[in-house]
TrEMBL record:
<dbReference type="InterPro" id="IPR013783">
    <property type="entry name" value="Ig-like_fold"/>
</dbReference>
<dbReference type="InterPro" id="IPR000601">
    <property type="entry name" value="PKD_dom"/>
</dbReference>
<dbReference type="Pfam" id="PF00801">
    <property type="entry name" value="PKD"/>
</dbReference>
<dbReference type="GO" id="GO:0005975">
    <property type="term" value="P:carbohydrate metabolic process"/>
</dbReference>
<dbReference type="InterPro" id="IPR035986">
    <property type="entry name" value="PKD_dom_sf"/>
</dbReference>
<feature type="domain" description="PKD">
    <location>
        <begin position="555"/>
        <end position="626"/>
    </location>
</feature>
<protein>
    <submittedName>
        <fullName>Tat pathway signal sequence domain protein</fullName>
    </submittedName>
</protein>
């Protein structure tokens, strides 16, 4: 194959891609040349048989670190389109597409494009345009119109939205999923850390209340301060039902305690912690029960170094301290070296309070000496947990923050000089600002148990698009919500499978539906019907009313969502599974009676829109169980992709 290139003459005569206004995002058209990515180089090309037969073209942009791969299915399979998945971190997604991504594209009549672009959309746009030249040459169809579709989730949603708002003639449609908005980072993580600080000990009872068959009242048993904090984080968008997995929600198993973006805040807003602990309007000084809890969580202790243990080369490896503080939560501790009042540097490592030993992992080792002081504090870590109170958006439409506004709309707490969320959003999206001015058709996909990108985010962006497009909104935009799905993409296994479904199939169907919408005018299923109440997205109970493409499972045990039985007593399960109109048929069902995460298939007969099941099970051991029925619907049962799942769950208490 003779691979095309962007020759010098073309680069010199084509218009240069540039922002439409000073300081704005780059506006990229199908015929402009990006001055930073105008020299694509093909490094290799070969025929590959796995995961499906395709021709792989690998290359890079000269003078940059960016690479790309193009995966071209056989000509008799290609239908004139390409799919392009994006994500801003090469450590999670680089230029090598997964087997599933390649096979999905091929079965959908699309070649696949993927880069190691680390933010924005310019690298991906340049790769997409070059891939069109490659495809035209490979398939020997130089005049054929090639359609393109970009999709990405989480950080990739910023790129996807930036791409579909700021390009024309590159991609024709987009599927942003589990989307972030300009307030998401770092606030969403700090908000959950705030919940951790105050509600960690009450998390198990909150979780039990929101589980199937629970009381339904997560506020029961909380004191007024705890109730106020739960209400605050709930109004901000943390899904109440997501408390079932409180360890993930509160970051109890993360090394940074959800404060990973703290370094960004320190760099941009370096006086925040000092202000938090000294100025009025912050919880560090507030004279209230909540303020007292926050101050009680603070650690600020100066210990004298009584001995320095060194390795054979003389490098310090640990410090023996004269004293240590009482520490309830070791996450977020800072270790700073002093000689009297003079700050010498900082260390990283771990503190053993029982042995009064600090083990060094890095830092300013030359400043370590016996007799000097090590300050141990979490002033920044505690202060960051309520940073969201001081980041009330100035942009209209963020109603989750209304709880921090006075009747006249002004913030009730002091505001920091810089709003960090929009800076991170703009950087990740390539300068885009979530204007809603989409240049192609879009289906946005949100998940109702997402604690990383809150469910209301998708609704907020839908409002931006509606304001921008007006009467054209319905002809260009859909929003689909999925229940029993969280933020994490990919297979759901182990204990997570007892309460969550994999949502990859929804994305695949959305991409296919966008392509059919663009190319053949086939409108996709209607948007999910929902309302946002106090930060919580609520959807109708019935599939016919809910919309979207997810089947709905109505499951009972002995006619209820909660049943108490004796060991050995038979429990009867009844279920009704229904797919929304014009979204396909129910094709599979499977049971997990004991909550093990392992499902056993159930016969359902021929695929159809509504399936009713009835079965029984005997629990022989005492305990509390959450039996689940997993249902799958699909538009094309012959396809390996596009499956939509949901769960029905109940509580069985065996005595």
């Amino acid at each position: 194959m003779c691979t095309p290139s962007l020759n010098t003459a073309t680069a010199e005569t084509a218009p240069s891609c540039a922002p439409q206004q000073a300081g704005g995002p780059f506006w990229i058209t199908g015929d402009c040349v990006d001055p930073a990515y105008n020299r694509p180089v093909v490094d290799s090309e070969r025929d590959v048989q796995s995961p499906v037969p395709h021709h792989r073209v690998s290359g890079h942009f000269e003078g940059t670190k960016y690479k790309f791969n193009i995966y071209l299915p056989p000509k008799n399979q290609w239908q004139g389109r390409f799919f392009h998945k994006v994500y801003p971190l090469a450590t999670i997604q680089d230029e090598n597409a997964s087997d599933e991504t390649i096979a999905f594209g091929a079965e959908s009549g699309a070649y696949t494009v993927q880069t190691n672009g680390d933010g924005g959309y310019r690298v991906d746009a340049a790769a997409a345009k070059f891939a069109k030249l490659v495809a035209a040459s490979y398939y020997r169809e130089p005049s054929r119109r090639i359609y393109g579709y970009v999709y990405g989730g989480s950080g990739g949603s910023f790129q996807t939205i930036g791409a579909i708002e700021n390009t024309v003639g590159v991609w024709d449609g987009a599927v942003p999923f589990v989307p972030g908005v300009p307030t998401s980072v770092p606030n969403n993580f700090f908000i959950r850390a705030f919940a951790r600080l105050i509600l960690k000990d009450k998390a198990p009872q909150i979780a039990d209340a929101v589980r199937p068959g629970g009381s339904g009242d997560p506020y029961a048993g909380l004191n007024p301060t705890e109730r106020a904090v739960l209400q605050e984080v709930t109004k901000l968008g943390v899904p109440l039902r997501a408390w079932e997995d409180y360890r993930y929600l509160l970051g109890l198993d993360t090394s940074d305690g959800l404060l990973g973006f703290g370094g960004v805040v320190r760099g941009i807003d370096p006086t925040y912690a000092d202000d938090f602990w000294s100025r009025p309007g912050y919880l560090g000084t507030e004279q209230s029960a909540l303020g007292a809890l926050v101050r009680a969580a603070k650690v600020d202790h100066v210990a004298t170094i009584t001995r320095v243990n060194r390795d054979a080369s003389g490098a310090p490896v640990s410090l023996v301290l004269g004293s240590v503080p009482s520490i309830h939560d070791a996450v977020g501790l800072d270790f700073t070296l002093y000689d009297g009042a003079t700050k010498l540097g900082s260390l990283t490592g771990s503190l053993d309070t029982a042995k009064k030993v600090f083990t060094i992992s890095g830092g300013d080792l030359d400043a370590v000496a016996t007799g000097r002081q090590l300050r141990i504090d979490n002033r920044w870590a505690v202060a960051l947990t309520s940073y969201h109170r001081h980041q009330v958006p100035t942009r209209a439409g963020f109603t989750a923050w209304d709880q921090f506004r006075a009747p006249d709309g002004t913030p009730i707490y002091p505001q920091r000089p810089i709003q960090i969320g929009p800076l991170i959003s703009s950087s990740t999206s390539g300068g885009g600002t979530h204007t809603g001015q989409i240049t192609g058709k879009v289906i946005i996909v949100g998940n109702l148990l997402d604690v990383d990108a809150y469910p209301w985010h998708a609704s907020w962006y839908a409002q931006q698009v509606q304001a921008a497009l007006g009467d054209r909104f319905g002809d260009n935009f859909r929003i689909w919500y999925n229940d029993n799905a969280d933020h994490l993409e990919g297979p759901v296994t182990g204990s997570r499978a007892t309460r969550l479904i994999e949502y990859t199939g929804f994305l695949q169907q959305a991409v296919r539906d966008v392509s059919a919408w663009v190319e053949r005018g086939v409108a996709p299923p209607r948007s999910s019907q929902y309302k946002v109440v106090d930060g919580q997205v609520q959807v109708p109970a019935r599939a016919t009313a809910r919309g979207g493409i997810q089947p709905v499972v109505d499951l009972t045990a002995n006619g209820s969502d909660h049943v108490d039985v004796a060991a050995g007593q038979r429990v009867t399960f009844s279920a009704r599974i229904q797919a929304p109109p014009k979204t396909g048929s129910v094709v599979a069902a499977a049971w997990d009676f004991t909550g093990s995460g392992t499902y056993t298939s159930s016969a359902i007969g021929a695929p159809r829109s509504t399936v009713e099941l009835r079965t029984s099970f005997v629990f022989t051991k005492a305990g509390t169980y959450f039996p689940a029925l997993r249902a799958t619907s699909q538009r094309d049962p012959r396809s390996s992709f596009g499956q939509a799942q949901n769960l029905g769950r109940v509580r069985v208490v065996v005595n």
